[in-house]
Design a protein that fits this description.
Elements (H helix, E strand, L loop, with lengths): L17 H17 L3 H19 L2 H16 L2 H42 L24
Length: 142
């Protein structure tokens, strides 16, 4: 038996209309935010903003703006400015992360002390020096 071959025509294909494109764009931005790729979203925002700005610019000023943009991209300050902003952001984020981790470690240490030494006898007491394995790294016998 031979199979019928259906030729695709323009009637069989669906064309995307503007609500479909808007829905896909919203889904894309939602996925970018959920994956934590906020940098990608920021880059897309600035590219879109730049495209709209250049699109609405009169033709007489377009050449001047593009020449100024090209001269800025070729200048050494183009590399210095974004990298210095990135360095400041990374330093701030590192300090914030370090303090958050220290607080969480301290909380877990206190919780561990309460669980290990307070359940057996019903009293929670402060332990000055503790080693859960009984192994002393310095090799000092007590």
């Amino acid at each position: 038996m031979s199979k019928k071959i259906i030729q695709s025509t323009s009637e069989n294909k669906t064309h995307a209309n503007w609500p479909d494109v808007a829905l896909r764009a919203i889904d894309f931005f939602y996925d970018v935010i959920n994956t934590g790729n906020i940098v990608g979203l920021i880059v897309i925002f600035f590219l879109t903003y730049g495209a709209v700005f250049l699109w609405r610019l009169p033709e007489t000023e377009l050449l001047v703006v593009l020449k100024g943009l090209a001269s800025f991209l070729l200048h050494e300050k183009f590399y210095f400015l974004p990298l210095s902003i990135l360095l400041a952001f990374c330093c701030f984020t590192l300090k914030k992360q370090e303090s958050t981790h220290k607080k969480e470690i301290q909380r877990l240490v206190e919780l561990r002390k309460e669980i290990l030494h307070g359940i057996d006898n019903g009293t929670l007491k402060k332990i000055e020096e503790h080693s859960s394995s009984g192994f002393d790294l310095l090799g000092e016998d007590k």
